[in-house]
Write a structure and sequence with these properties.
- With 428 residues, the protein is of the alpha/beta class.
- The protein folds into 2 domains: 158 residues, Lyase, Ornithine Decarboxylase, Chain A, domain 1 (Beta Barrel); 238 residues, TIM Barrel, CATH 3.20.20.
- The chain has 12 helices and 21 strands.
- A hairpin with an 8-residue loop joins strand 17 and strand 18.
- Helix 5 crosses helix 6 and helix 8 packs parallel to helix 9.
- Bound molecules: ligand LLP.
- The site of ligand LLP has 21 residues, from helix 10 and helix 11.
Length: 428
């Protein structure tokens, strides 16, 4: 539940705002974000890393959730920014986000994206391949600049998460592979490129990770890699970025570790591994996305159709679905729902919340307990703050929901609801 969730007179309140009233005012489907929850997590990340490892920075991975107001919060709380392409960079440019505090990711950045990033003066481009290193160097030379880069390395660590979001194992499209010592052999070539300055190594082992030992293993691999690079190439790496990936609790059975524990494992792991190998401590970066925004978000829907299949299941059809939350269909993600206008009643029925799209797989919640559903009820689905809006679509011509931030009893629309005209606007 979002940090400020409460129940008054049977209604769910978040940020001091009645979710039933909000749904009636704004219409559904509706994304709601508890601003205090986001701010609390940003503060905890910042404090935890500052305390354990003063020479560090927390970059918010904007792919998890991005709009202009979110970006203002990121800047206000002194976090830096991880963007994964030209579109996310455009948001940063639109708000004059400090360019030096931006890292640019992506396994196939276009020449145009690379040029835009260099012109804007980003703090680092995280180079994903040997080909890309040359491309960045060429473009930087053409612009008369030298671009700070990281090399993204695939550390060969299998994180304990869904295979679609595992990225650190060896069979991955991301990063310089360590197979056949490829990444190591590339360091010299990359270092020799005239348009780039190799300042750091990066790795990201996956997302929604509960078992922190995977991070420790990855740190060890990165430290050993750095030690070999120092010995062989005489290059002591200045910065290390351990990516994102901390898991969150989507349902009561998920038991994630806290931000503070995560910070402790990462910071102590880096200190220990680098010191043991006689290396000086690099500047340490992490790039959390999900663990900053997932918990703050909920999606409100209106119940439109009820259908009971004897001995099979009860379908509760809502006015959204895979267009606003693809994660259930794509990853079999689990979410917990509640009826916002019956929030004080027991969740006594097992239901499937299906969407309104033309696909059998279109469900938001599969076989979870809910209060007795009736037509017109407002259903809240929790923990939808990450990778729902940013992965949303207009499938079946469905306009994307508005986004409302709630705090201290006030609700403000920070992204308006998409219209049919918006959807058609680019057509000739
Ligand atoms: N850094 C890099 C290089 C990444 O690729 C990612 C996520 C992050 C940071 C942030 O990871 P987080 O802290 O959010 O776990 N769409 C999937 C998640 C894909 C994650 C992709 N990369 C989902 O909905 O679960």
């Amino acid at each position: 539940l979002p940090a400020t969730a409460e129940v008054h007179d049977g209604h769910l309140f978040v940020g001091g705002v009645d979710m039933v009233q909000l749904a009636h005012e704004q219409g559904t489907a509706l994304y709601v974000m508890d601003e205090a929850d986001i701010e609390m997590r940003m503060t905890r990340y910042k404090n935890a890393f500052q305390q354990e490892y003063p020479h560090s920075a927390v970059l918010y991975a904007s792919k998890a959730f991005l709009n202009k107001e979110m970006l203002r919060l990121v800047e206000k709380h002194g976090l830096e920014l991880d963007v994964s392409g030209g579109g996310e960079l455009a948001y940063a440019q639109a708000l004059n986000f400090p360019s030096q505090s931006i890292h640019v990711h992506g396994n196939n950045k276009t020449p145009r994206e690379i040029e835009e990033a260099i012109v804007y003066g980003v703090g680092a481009i995280v180079v994903d391949s040997r080909i890309e290193a040359s491309r960045v160097s060429e473009i930087a030379c053409k612009l008369g600049k030298r671009q700070r880069i990281y090399m993204r390395v695939t550390p060969g660590v299998e994180a304990d998460t869904h295979e679609y979001i595992r990225t650190g194992c060896e069979d991955s499209k991301f990063g310089f592979t360590m197979l056949d010592d490829f990444a190591f052999r590339c360091v010299g070539d990359v270092q020799a490129l005239p348009g780039v300055e190799l300042i750091g190594f990066h790795c990201h082992i996956g997302s929604q990770i509960f078992a922190l030992h995977s991070f420790k293993e990855a740190i060890d691999v990165m430290a050993q890699f750095s030690a070999r690079v120092k010995q062989h190439y005489g290059l002591e790496i200045q910065e290390l970025d351990m990516g994102g990936g901390l898991g969150v609790a989507y349902t009561a059975s998920d038991k994630p570790t806290s931000i503070e524990e995560f910070a402790h494992v990462i910071c102590s792991g880096v200190k220990e591994s680098f010191t043991r190998l006689g290396l000086s401590l690099p500047k340490l970066m992490v790039e959390p996305g999900r663990s900053i925004v997932a918990n703050a978000g909920l999606t409100l829907y209106t119940v439109g159709i009820l259908k009971t299949l004897p001995h099979i299941r009860k379908y509760v059809a809502v006015d959204g679905g895979m267009s606003d939350n693809i994660r259930t269909a794509l990853y079999h993600a689990s979410y917990e729902p509640a009826i916002a206008n019956k929030a004080d009643q027991p969740r006594s029925e097992i239901v499937t919340l299906c969407g309104k799209h033309c696909e059998s797989g279109d469900a938001v919640v599969i076989d979870m307990p809910l209060q007795h559903p009736e037509l017109g009820d407002i259903v809240a689905v929790f923990c939808t703050g990450a990778y729902c809006y940013t992965m949303s679509s207009t499938y079946n011509g469905q306009p994307r929901p508005a986004i409302v931030f709630v705090k201290d009893g006030a609700a403000r629309v920070v992204t308006r609801r998409e219209t049919y005209a918006d959807i058609m606007a680019r057509d000739v």
